[in-house]
Amino acid sequence: MTYNTHYKIFVSSPSDVSKERNIVDEVITKINNAISDSLGVYLSVERWEKLPPETTDEELQKRLNKKIKDCHFFLLILNKRYGSIAKGQTISNTEREINTILDYLAKDKKKKILSYFKETNSNPDPGPQEMQILELKKKLRETSFWFYKEFKTSSDFEIYLTHDLYQILFRMKQSSFKIEQLKRFWQFGKLDNQVSPKVLVIYPPVPREWMRVENYNIWQKRLLPNIFFEDFKALHKILKNLSMVGLSDYKVYSKFDSPQDYDKSNIIWICLPRQTKGLSSLKRREDTNFDIIPRNNNKEPYIKWKTIDGSWIDIKSPLLKYLKQQRLEVDPVKEWEKSLGNVIARDYAIIARFDRDIPYNDTPGMDKLKEYYITGIHGLGTWGAAWYVDRFYGKFKDLNLEDMENVQILVEVEYCDGKINNVKDVSNCPREYFEEQLKTRTITQAILDYKELRV
């Protein structure tokens, strides 16, 4: 049978926990039988006693370094013994293993560590080995990357180890699944001999007039222009995603300092209603199911969306109605207070991906560049759109990596008490749904339901 992933577990354990050592083998066998096929993983155990005998500290350390480097997990089990010192050696094998993994983790914290100490009765006069264990516990408590559990019986140890391994394995597989699906969404082309960053991420800063700052020398006191909190949260999610899919060749620009040759890169536009270049790029397209109508005089921005029956509808945001109804007695002159953020609110947003409609795409030997739009009607929608990509990555599992079709999703974003509560795909909802969400009775009922849940 072939397994997708082979995880090696290095087990460090002196002779007084031989029973627990045998339990490790039993637990690993049970886990392999239970989830190897479904999760595509296989666990194996590496131990010191399986290493060929060596004669010098240097040779032992060299082999141990390689073993620990090749293993994915380090499992430590201790009771009262810290290991015996073999002839010709200066420290015990157990101590050598612990020192090696501590040194390794100080440089690279990717190893998964599982440590278990058997509870012992208080000893007013502990021996040298027991003293070493007490000192190790103290040392581990002072680290930020190595935690341990204490167990009373062998049965407790078996339960702890089984639970912890299952939890770590599921998290690891979930992470790899997430990366795989995000790679289906975040796809980028590259020009031959490209000198500019592969991906440009462009956001709109806070306009000076919105800062309500009277001082004329405002730019003497700031390193960079302000950014709206919601746009920052969206930017954070996007950069996190790019890191997860292994992309480092990107650069973040504000709309005021984006490069002149931005047509030679993949682009991620954040919050289109305030991006002239991004809007112009969108409006040149003929293959979209949406359009972004920016703020005009006293009219709020909105989305035009093409429904499944081919008709166009205007998607307007209920965000300001939600805020106004919950902040009727707010004094706009006072400083921010926590209660202002403890509200419910909703907004709409677009998540889209297209081939860049530029001549470079037709040049032989050049991959098609991509253009992304992560944009809400307001900042809340933009934040929620990036949140949707990061949290609902499973939605992209059906995207064809070869065809690289366009992506166009309309989402509804719900905010509660300082964070995104939910984002849902409303691409196929009828006109009547959006009209209902704008009605005062719908908003009032949503606020009442929210307040009832908070009580």
Features:
455 residues; alpha/beta; Rossmann fold; 2 domains; seven-stranded mixed sheet; five-stranded parallel sheet; 12 helices; 15 strands; elongated
Question: Can you walk through the features of this model?
Answer:
This protein has twelve helices and 15 strands. The chain has helices at 18-39, 57-70, 93-107, 128-141, 154-185, 229-244, 276-283, 319-326, 338-341, 379-391, 431-437, 440-454; strands spanning 5-12, 41-47, 73-78, 112-118, 149-151, 199-203, 250-254, 266-270, 290-293, 302-306, 312-315, 344-355, 370-376, 407-416, 419-425. It is of the alpha/beta class and 455 residues long. Strand 9 and strand 10 form a beta hairpin. The strands form three sheets. Strands 7-6-8-13-12-14-15 form a seven-stranded mixed β-sheet. A five-stranded parallel β-sheet has the order 2-1-3-4-5, sandwiched between helices. A three-stranded antiparallel β-sheet has the order 9-10-11. Helix content is 37%, strand content 21%. The protein has two domains: 5-177, Rossmann fold (3-Layer(aba) Sandwich), CATH 3.40.50.10140; 186-454, no CATH class.
